[in-house]
TrEMBL record:
Domain 3-hydroxyacyl-CoA dehydrogenase C-terminal: 476-569
Protein name: 3-hydroxyacyl-CoA dehydrogenase
SUPFAM superfamilies: 6-phosphogluconate dehydrogenase C-terminal domain-like, ClpP/crotonase, NAD(P)-binding Rossmann-fold domains
Compartment list: Peroxisome
All copies of domain 3-hydroxyacyl-CoA dehydrogenase NAD binding, residue ranges: 295-471
Native organism taxonomy: Bacteria, Pseudomonadati, Pseudomonadota, Alphaproteobacteria, Hyphomicrobiales
CDD domains, per database record: crotonase-like (cd06558)
Gene Ontology molecular function: (3S)-3-hydroxyacyl-CoA dehydrogenase (NAD+) activity; enoyl-CoA hydratase activity; isomerase activity; NAD+ binding
Pathway listed: Lipid metabolism; fatty acid beta-oxidation
Catalytic function, reaction form: a (3S)-3-hydroxyacyl-CoA + NAD(+) = a 3-oxoacyl-CoA + NADH + H(+)
């Protein structure tokens, strides 16, 4: 039978008395207004058609339904609303079964929950990721999911926003079956259920659970929420499902959803969502094909190099890791294998996947073994002469089409590129440590980087599952330049009257996992000290310079590794140290500064302004492309709380 069309994004065909509805709203089949109206039209059509026994809902392409259309948030509501569509599905007299071919997220999962059965394909995923957008599910998710899978499992899924793969969904009772061809199975399920009493999730009771275990699950979510409202609200609503009736629970959920949708927290997280999708997109590269990368060379297998090697291995690349001696290569192999073992222990990797990774790994002390690499990433000591010498050598070894990437944090990649005969093949890949864990990579578009080399670097980072932010050449790139500016401001406040613990407390209350002085202690104070000593001769004597960090280092206080830094450390705890307070006092006296009191608000205002001013400078210089890119770097590399949207967003 010919295709029927219910709206611009919803069509259907009849298959033996079953109306097979397809949602086709690229890119992710979001529940935009014409999808909602199309679903209602399909239900209306079916209700009056005696020859149709029921419906299957499916999604075209790789996704089932990616959720509500986030772009519609903030625009005037247009009916039918999603909760109304979903209530209609659940109450429908004929069976409605969904064929979940891919991701069923947010509103998409809520549509699935309201169906009378859920057949999953092998690549299906189910999740309610609303908390990641600063909201709670708003179309029944917090009320129907606990009825189907129990309160504790629902708190975990909704409170974290994580998605469950098909097998887990089956084990939880969220999917009824996992099959290779969900559409055919769903059509059969509609026929089986026709004329029988239907299983309506909203009509079920929430299974009883131990209240201490519920408390524990809730506490775990709230402890991780770093001051965000949505996770706690989601947990409250899921728990309420056990005591409130469906109607009252849905009303409570709707009110909370609408309130949070209009919050700054949600606006910030939506900004982050869209900034992430925009990052790494370079207009001029739209028609540029990336080069093929199968084998990745990694030079240096220290903390950074081994992390990069692990990332590449777990993403399916073959890796050749180079060290200076055979002994160092053997320890590098051990370090990489150790990281893979840890991933197996924490269940991020299966034992088989680890073995496959190790089979793709070669460690060597012979530079010529890098000849087969399509991309070489260096992670050696951050010294210009070391790096230029290395690039000169690599240039003579790798194939003409191979790409050379530097992981420098502060050196000028153009100078490094100039050591090669073909600087167009050089790009910066600034990973953050530990590279197998941290998502962010600053992709540095050097003066002579060829467009297809940049496109290849972006494709490589994407395949690693990481977040690429493109930036131009400047000392410290986006992140370290902003970090330096805000550290400078923190040190000015130190001299003017604030103490390290006060500044750290203000940052931590704002949502940073750790204040700047505690972070410096963790990273070690000696690297920045060495850089300051190198730069001393070039420093403008009229520029304000705070010497306190130098005095700390001279006193052997190099951070956590020495047990002493901006704080004293004992048994893993940081404590205010009167010796540091005395050093700070002495620095003030030396400059005739009379200390004054700072409020947490003033501290945060000044730190934010320092970040924003530097961010604006980076945009003006063309180093950063969009304010959102700067926000992503600070969120993913420097602990800026995502629910505040990053410094550029927060400053608006
Ligand atoms: C919700 O459902 C609330 C309800 O409870 C209650 C309502 C009453 N809307 O990520 P990608 C765009 S809240 C609009 O690169 P992938 C995205 O911007 C929602 N647009 O693809 C990008 O656009 P562009 C809960 C969306 O294949 C393009 O699609 N749902 C939406 O790597 C491709 O995106 C979520 O939070 C959307 N919902 O991953 C799920 N989603 O090409 C959010 C994506 O112009 N989405 N776009 O840059 C995802 O997690 C991933 O997009 C997904 C596909 C896994 C689906």
């Amino acid at each position: 039978m010919a295709e029927m069309r219910f709206s611009q994004s919803v069509s259907a065909r009849l298959e033996g008395g079953v109306l097979v509805v397809a949602i086709d709203n690229p890119p992710v089949n979001a529940l935009s207004v014409h999808v909602r109206s199309g679903l209602v039209a399909a239900l209306d059509y079916t209700v009056n058609a005696s020859h149709i026994v029921g419906l299957v809902i499916s999604g075209a392409g790789r996704t089932f339904i990616g959720g509500a259309d986030i772009r519609e948030f903030g625009t005037p509501p247009v009916g039918p609303s999603l909760p109304d569509v979903i209530d209609r599905i659940e109450a429908f007299d004929k069976p409605v079964i969904c064929a979940v071919n891919g991701a069923a997220l947010g509103g998409g999962c809520e549509v699935a929950l309201a169906c009378h059965g859920r057949i999953a394909g092998e690549t299906a995923t189910f999740g309610l990721p609303e908390v990641k957008l600063g909201i709670v599910p708003g179309a029944g998710g917090t009320q129907r999911l606990p009825r189907l899978i129990g309160t504790i499992a629902a708190i975990d899924l909704i409170g974290t926003g994580r998605a469950a793969k098909a097998d887990e969904a089956l084990a939880l009772g969220l999917a009824d079956a996992v099959v290779a061809d969900p559409l055919t199975a769903a059509v059969a399920a509609v026929r089986d259920n026709a004329g029988r009493p239907l299983r309506r999730t909203g009509g079920m009771n929430v299974p009883a659970a131990d209240s201490a275990a519920i408390d524990m699950a809730a506490t775990k979510i709230i402890a991780k929420s770093r001051g965000q409202s949505a996770p706690a609200e989601a947990v409250r609503l899921v728990r309420a499902a056990g005591s409130l009736g469906l109607e009252q629970g849905l009303a409570e959920e709707r009110a909370t959803f609408l309130h949070l949708r209009d919050s700054t927290e949600s606006a910030a997280l939506r900004h982050v969502f869209f900034a992430e999708r925009a990052a790494g997109k370079v207009e001029t590269l739209a028609d540029v094909a990336p080069r093929r990368i199968d084998t990745v060379g990694v030079v240096g297998t220290g903390l950074m190099g081994s992390g990069i090697a692990v990332s590449a291995l777990t993403s399916g690349y073959r890796v050749v890791a180079l060290e200076q001696t055979r002994e160092a290569a053997a320890s590098g192999h051990e370090r990489i294998a150790g990281l893979l073992d840890k991933a197996v222990q924490s269940r991020r990797l299966t034992a088989e996947a680890r073995d496959a990774c190790l089979a793709r790994l070669e460690t060597t002390a012979e530079a010529k073994d890098l000849a087969t690499a399509d991309l070489v990433v260096e992670a050696v000591f951050d010294d210009l002469s070391v790096k230029t010498a290395l690039f000169r050598t690599l240039d003579g070894i790798v194939a003409p089409g191979a790409i050379l990437a530097t992981n420098t944090s502060y050196l000028d990649p153009d100078t490094i590129a100039a050591a090669t005969a073909d600087p167009s093949r050089v790009v910066g890949l600034h990973f953050f440590s530990p590279a197998n864990v941290m998502r962010l990579v600053e992709v540095v578009d050097c003066a002579k980087t060829a467009p297809d080399v940049l496109a290849s670097a972006l494709a490589f980072v994407k395949r690693l599952g990481k977040l690429a932010v493109v930036c131009g050449v400047t000392e410290g790139f986006i992140g370290n330049r902003i970090f330096s500016a805000y550290r400078r401001e923190a040190e000015f406040m130190l001299e003017d009257g604030a103490l390290p613990y006060q500044i750290d407390a203000a940052l931590e209350a704002y949502g940073f996992p750790m204040g700047i002085f505690a972070v410096n202690d963790m990273a070690g104070l000696d690297i920045a000290w060495a850089r300051r000593k190198r730069q001393a001769a070039a420093r403008d004597p009229a520029e304000r310079y705070v010497e306190i960090a130098d005095r700390l280092c001279e006193a052997g206080r190099l951070g956590r590794k020495t047990g002493l830094g901006w704080y004293t450390y004992a048994n893993g705890e940081r404590m205010v140290d009167p010796v540091v307070t005395a050093l700070i006092d002495a620095a003030r006296v030396k400059k005739d500064i009379v200390p004054r009191a700072f409020t947490a608000e003033e501290i945060m205002d000044r730190l934010l302004m320092a970040m924003v001013d530097e961010g604006k400078a980076l945009l003006a210089e063309g180093v950063a492309t969009r304010p959102g890119d700067i926000d992503l770097v600070m969120i993913n590399g420097y602990g800026f709380p995502a629910h505040k949207g990053g410094p550029m967003f927060a400053a608006q």
